Amino acid sequence: MKKDVCPMCGGLKKKSTTSFTVDYNYGVIVVRDVPAMVCVQCGEEWLADEVASKLEKIASVAKKQQQEIFIAKYNSYLLAS
Ligand SMILES: [Zn+2]
Asked: What fold characterizes domain 13-73?
Protein backbone atom coordinates (compact mmCIF):
# COMPACT_ATOMS: atom_id res chain seq x y z
CA MET A 1 0.00 0.00 0.00
CA LYS A 2 1.21 3.46 -0.88
CA LYS A 3 1.76 6.01 1.81
CA ASP A 4 -0.39 9.09 1.56
CA VAL A 5 2.60 11.35 1.26
CA CYS A 6 3.18 13.81 -1.57
CA PRO A 7 6.23 12.86 -3.69
CA MET A 8 6.67 16.52 -4.65
CA CYS A 9 6.99 18.10 -1.22
CA GLY A 10 6.50 15.39 1.40
CA GLY A 11 3.22 16.93 2.52
CA LEU A 12 0.18 14.91 3.46
CA LYS A 13 -2.30 13.80 0.80
CA LYS A 14 -5.93 14.25 1.75
CA LYS A 15 -9.16 13.07 0.17
CA SER A 16 -10.80 16.03 -1.48
CA THR A 17 -12.56 17.12 -4.63
CA THR A 18 -11.28 19.09 -7.57
CA SER A 19 -12.48 20.44 -10.89
CA PHE A 20 -11.40 18.91 -14.17
CA THR A 21 -11.13 21.29 -17.13
CA VAL A 22 -10.40 20.55 -20.78
CA ASP A 23 -9.99 23.10 -23.54
CA TYR A 24 -10.85 21.89 -27.01
CA ASN A 25 -11.66 23.32 -30.44
CA TYR A 26 -15.22 24.36 -29.69
CA GLY A 27 -14.98 25.48 -26.11
CA VAL A 28 -14.29 24.24 -22.66
CA ILE A 29 -15.41 21.20 -20.67
CA VAL A 30 -15.65 21.45 -16.91
CA VAL A 31 -16.40 18.57 -14.56
CA ARG A 32 -16.92 19.59 -10.97
CA ASP A 33 -16.76 17.71 -7.67
CA VAL A 34 -14.24 15.20 -8.97
CA PRO A 35 -12.92 13.00 -6.15
CA ALA A 36 -9.16 13.33 -5.84
CA MET A 37 -6.27 13.11 -3.43
CA VAL A 38 -4.88 16.58 -2.85
CA CYS A 39 -1.64 17.53 -1.10
CA VAL A 40 -2.44 19.88 1.77
CA GLN A 41 0.93 21.53 1.39
CA CYS A 42 1.51 22.16 -2.34
CA GLY A 43 -1.93 21.45 -3.82
CA GLU A 44 -0.76 18.70 -6.18
CA GLU A 45 -3.67 16.47 -7.21
CA TRP A 46 -3.95 12.77 -7.97
CA LEU A 47 -6.86 11.04 -9.63
CA ALA A 48 -7.67 7.36 -9.28
CA ASP A 49 -7.49 5.37 -12.54
CA GLU A 50 -11.24 4.80 -12.58
CA VAL A 51 -11.86 8.50 -12.02
CA ALA A 52 -9.49 9.46 -14.83
CA SER A 53 -11.10 7.03 -17.26
CA LYS A 54 -14.59 8.28 -16.43
CA LEU A 55 -13.40 11.84 -17.04
CA GLU A 56 -12.01 10.80 -20.41
CA LYS A 57 -15.37 9.32 -21.36
CA ILE A 58 -17.26 12.41 -20.19
CA ALA A 59 -14.89 14.56 -22.22
CA SER A 60 -15.34 12.50 -25.38
CA VAL A 61 -19.15 12.65 -25.06
CA ALA A 62 -19.03 16.37 -24.35
CA LYS A 63 -16.80 17.05 -27.37
CA LYS A 64 -19.39 15.49 -29.66
CA GLN A 65 -21.98 17.96 -28.38
CA GLN A 66 -19.75 20.87 -29.46
CA GLN A 67 -21.03 23.20 -26.79
CA GLU A 68 -19.04 26.31 -26.04
CA ILE A 69 -19.24 25.58 -22.34
CA PHE A 70 -20.01 22.14 -21.00
CA ILE A 71 -20.35 21.78 -17.24
CA ALA A 72 -21.14 18.54 -15.43
CA LYS A 73 -20.95 17.23 -11.91
CA TYR A 74 -18.88 14.10 -11.59
CA ASN A 75 -21.28 12.16 -9.37
CA SER A 76 -24.49 13.08 -11.16
CA TYR A 77 -23.09 12.37 -14.62
CA LEU A 78 -24.18 8.92 -15.74
CA LEU A 79 -22.50 7.21 -18.64
CA ALA A 80 -24.38 4.82 -20.85
CA SER A 81 -22.39 1.64 -20.75
ZN1 LIG B 1 2.88 18.34 -1.98
From this structure: Ubiquitin-like (UB roll) (3.10.20)
pTM of the model: 0.84
Give exposure, 21-52, as e/b (b: 16+ Cβ within 10 Å): ebeeeebebbbbebebbbbeeeeebbbeeebe
Tell me: pLDDT of 80 over 70: no
> What is the C-alpha separation between 4 and 62, in angstroms, rounded?
33
- Cβ atoms of residues 16 and 24 within 8 Å: no
Q: What is the 47 CA–ligand 1 centroid distance (Å)?
A: 14
Ligand 1 centroid to Cα of residue 45, in Å, is 9
